[in-house]
Specification:
Layout: E1 10-21, E2 24-31, H1 39-47, H2 56-68, H3 74-77, H4 84-90, H5 96-113, E3 114-120, H6 124-139, H7 158-163, H8 178-190, H9 193-200
Antiparallel strand pairs: 1-2, 1-3
Helix pairs in contact: 2-5
Length: 202
């Protein structure tokens, strides 16, 4: 399904089973990518590649699973083993069998509970601005929040548990302006800058 996305740059919006907002599916994560042409890779890092050190979403879901069971391995799970210095210093703390089991559990949770939509945004600066604007608009809405059964409520990260989003960055940034919201609507509907520019110059 990821390979069928027809554009290489964009923003993804995630929803989660059981999470509703005004009787609609509630957004639980907003994400993008800094490098050009990495949208599909970013989504595969989340859903396909079982390596939480390469996906902050996988890392956060793992944190919630460990924390809900008061598992002392949470401290080791925090270590990013992509760094050679961490491997040298803390490699002895890593339980590879446990991490493999947890990665499988995370994958199953994602595939069974998380869906997503995307829309194209070609330029990096615009992607990053619209991403943070969506996150801030959601988190600042007093009616927005998680259900009592949302997995993220078990997160040891207060920003996640409080916001109802699997996001930590952008929660207190500038919400979307009306112009930015209209921009998102056009990109989501048409994915075509030339169409948007033609409409706005008439």
């Amino acid at each position: 399904m990821i390979n069928k996305i027809p554009y290489p740059n964009g923003i993804y919006i995630m929803f989660e089973s059981g999470e509703k907002f005004y009787n609609m599916d509630r957004i639980v994560r907003v994400g993008t990518h800094k490098g050009q042409e990495r949208l599909l890779k970013r989504l595969k890092d989340h859903f396909v590649k079982e390596d939480a050190d390469g996906s902050i979403l996988r890392k956060n879901i793992g944190r919630a699973f460990l924390n809900m069971n008061s598992d002392s391995y949470l401290q080791s799970w925090e270590i990013d083993m992509h760094y050679s210095e961490n491997k040298r210093k803390y490699g002895h703390l890593i339980n590879k069998e446990l991490e493999t089991e947890l990665e499988v559990k995370i994958s199953s949770y994602l595939r069974d509970n998380i869906t997503f939509v995307c829309f194209p945004v070609e330029e990096k600066d615009e992607r990053l601005r619209l991403e943070e604007g969506i996150i801030a608009s959601l988190s600042r809405n007093p009616s927005f929040g998680a259900s009592s059964s949302w997995l993220g409520l078990n997160s040891p990260i207060p920003e996640i548990a409080r916001s109802g989003l699997w996001n930590r960055q952008g929660l207190r940034r500038q919400p979307l302006s009306e112009k930015e919201l209209e921009r998102i609507k056009w990109l989501a509907r048409f994915g075509n800058d030339s169409y948007y520019k033609n409409k706005t110059t008439r």
